Amino acid sequence: EILQVLQMQMQSGVLTVSQGKTEVVVVFRGGLIDVAQSRGVSDEFRLGRYLVEEGLVAKDQLEQAAETARAEKARIGDTLVAKGIIQEADLRRALIRQSSELIYEILRWPRPRFSFRKQGATEGQPPPSNTPELGLPVASLVMEGFQRVDEWRLFEEHIDFEGVLYQNAAAIEKLGPDRLDKGEKRILELVDGERPVREIVRMSHASSFDACKTLYQFLEARIVRRRTA
Length: 229
What we know:
By secondary structure, the protein is of the alpha+beta class. It is built from ten helices and six strands, in the order H-E-E-E-H-H-H-H-E-H-E-H-H-H-H-E. Strand 1 (13-19) and strand 2 (22-29) form a beta hairpin.
């Protein structure tokens, strides 16, 4: 409701959403979301994950760029562009994914706290002049976010995150290797009959939502099965 009110009133400023030690800062401009950034959230929301996942940056390049960015007190995305490793369009696409997924995440929080500093208000400070201007509409983000909330409930009902899964060789052979994309193959490879689901999700280098959705689909299709004691 707060996000939608800020959009309808075409507000500009900084919305801070916190839960415990976790915080997401959302920059609004004329009712649109320019960027969302975070402190204390899972590593899956770091910008580098999106760039590595798309094959735009190797892990060693990312680590070197992170060191340079820290030394120069610059943002890692700007450093990667300056070095010619990625293009501006690549950075923008990664920032859109990062900001969108952070909005989806805060919609899952049961008891968040909110504060809003209106741009130009006496007590507030305007966003930095170099803030990315993504111009994301709130309505579509909220719609997608609530759909994900419903899917998360489904995953949590059917997936034991401390449980262990194993591959169903017969079902995999019947499916055929070309039916799975790269991310699905990566997650299937991690199902070894020993790792708990929580570890598979962590090692997948995908968002926890995407990893859980894939595992849920595998369970429904009997591509993987639950190991019983």
